[in-house]
Design goal:
InterPro entries: Thioredoxin-like_fold, Thioredoxin-like_sf, TON_0319-like
Strand order of the largest sheet: 2-1-3-4-6-5-7-8
Shape: globular
Largest sheet: 8 strands, mixed
Number of domains: 1
Distance between the termini: 46 Å
Family: Belongs to the glutaredoxin family.
Protein name: Glutaredoxin
Number of helices: 8
Domain Thioredoxin-like fold: 132-208
Oligomer: single chain
CATH class: Alpha Beta
CATH topology: Glutaredoxin
Strand content: 15-25%
Keywords: Electron transport, Transport
Order of helices and strands: HEHEHEEHHEHEHEEH
CATH architecture: 3-Layer(aba) Sandwich
Length: 212
């Protein structure tokens, strides 16, 4: 059964017309409740642009270790890869409000032009140690996509940065471990730093640097 209507596909296709270079969605699945739905969703997404492709992987395969998909013990996981960038990660279904950040990430990976000011890009590139920015979301949260996009944009401009979206309802044990009560909750290197809300990018970066 198709998850995207013809109108959905038309709209997504129009947005993806801005793509310049190929982007691959690496999708890692096991026997999780939403894994088949996630596979079908990504397959249908890939039908909307010749520059978008899906590589499907078993959760217990070598690629899962290589791309860090096994970090939270189950699927579904998507790693977006464009050019030499592969630090843009989605743990859970990127549907609901998160389809907005998903499409934006694909386009910006493809164009190599994340929506950050030159000064902010330079400031992000000053980070010279590994940083994991984890953004906990729910599918209905209208403020979450903005926080996800900021984390992922930082990952696009600095190879030391990895941005993770985690759907709290699909990864409940992880959300409980990090004490998530409101979203978007952003954690930096696990418990090194924590803040909440879709902050302006400059303030978001200040919070990240304060945690280092």
């Amino acid at each position: 059964m198709s998850l995207l209507t013809d109108e959905n596909k038309r709209q997504i296709g129009e947005l993806l017309e801005r793509m310049d270079e190929p982007v691959t969605i690496h999708t890692f699945t096991d026997d999780c409740e939403t894994c088949e739905e996630c596979l079908e969703f990504n397959r249908e997404m890939a039908e909307t642009s010749e520059l978008l492709s899906v590589e499907e992987h078993e959760f217990d395969g070598e690629a899962a270790e290589e791309y860090g998909a096994t970090k939270y013990d189950h699927g579904p996981v998507q790693v977006l890869e464009g050019g030499d960038v592969s630090g843009v990660n989605y743990f859970g279904l990127p549907t609901g409000q998160e389809i907005n950040s998903y499409i934006t990430d694909i386009v910006e990976l493809s164009t190599g032009d994340p929506d950050l000011s030159v000064d902010l890009i330079e400031a992000v590139q000053e980070i010279d140690e590994p940083v994991e920015i984890t953004v906990f979301v729910t599918p209905t949260c209208p403020h979450c996509p903005g926080a996800v996009q900021t984390a992922h944009r930082f990952a696009m401009v600095n190879e030391h940065v990895t941005g993770e979206m985690i759907q709290s309802q699909e990864f409940m044990e992880v959300a409980q471990e990090y004490g998530v009560r409101g979203v978007p909750q952003i954690n930096v290197n696990g418990s090194d730093g924590e803040f909440t809300g879709n902050l302006p990018p400059q303030q978001f970066l200040s919070e990240v640097k304060n945690a280092l």
